[in-house]
Amino acid sequence: MRVLELAYVIALGAGLGFASAHYAVAGRPWIGRAEIGAWSVWPKSGARDSDPYMRAYLARGPHLPLGAGEGLDLLAERDDDGRALDARCRYAITGTTPPARGWSLIATDAAGQTLATAVPRGGFTDAEIVRGEDGALSIVAATGAEPGNWLPLPASGGFRLRLRLYDTPISSHAAELRREALPRIARIDCR
Which of 1, 14, 16, 170 shows the greatest Cβ crowding within 10 Å of its Cβ? Predict the structure, then answer.
């Protein structure tokens, strides 16, 4: 009887240990994360002194972080009102981007893969976007075609927006970014 109890305790401990280790590295870690409005950023993800959870996350998958001086990688899973991004809705992505030599904005699934849409356009770069007279960007993310800067979405499901800023002077102090410096994500309507 004692052997069964010992085997049970060892199996339970091993199972909980493996489950907690998987949970710690399965997604982007909460440690080292800064939230700026709808956007999340991990400023030290590509630095030499990144935390062990981030290093484990990066080693676990095909992730290539931007180095400490190369830029920033920002993710948004929710709009500015805190609602999860849903492809059945239309979103207005407006405002400005922080100073950077270049940037890209793409829509991805939860695993970080480009979305499969009817139109082979996964995102925009700073060289492709049509800006207004004031220099602000204005993009509509929707399933159906929209006039102007249209980011196509699939028919349904959740998605993420990924904004990468390349060669930006703010990469060393990203946690100090203000909400006004990043694009706003506003839900227009849903079908």
Answer: 170
CA distance 133 to 176: 28
DSSP bridge partners of 71: 166
Say if strands 149-152 and 137-142 run parallel, antiparallel, or are unpaired.
Answer: parallel
pTM over 0.85: no
32 Cβ partners below 8 Å, 6+ apart?
42, 43, 44, 45, 50, 51, 53, 54
Dist CA 146 CA 189 (whole Å)? 13
Residues paired with residue 106 on neighbouring β-strands, in sequence order: 123, 162
With tokens 């948004």, the residue in question is: 76
Domains of the chain: 34-46+67-190 (2.60.120.600)
Taking a C-beta distance cutoff of 8 angstroms, is the pair 146, 127 a contact?
Answer: no
Instruction: Decide: 170 and 72 in contact? Cβ < 8 Å.
Output: yes
In tens digits, the chain (191 residues) has pLDDT values of 688 888 888 888 888 877 776 666 666 665 667 778 889 877 766 666 666 666 666 666 666 666 666 778 888 999 999 999 999 999 999 998 888 888 999 998 887 788 877 788 888 888 888 888 888 889 999 998 888 899 999 888 899 999 988 887 775 566 567 778 889 999 999 87
Contacts of 98 (CB under 8 A, 6+ apart): 165, 168, 170, 177, 181, 182
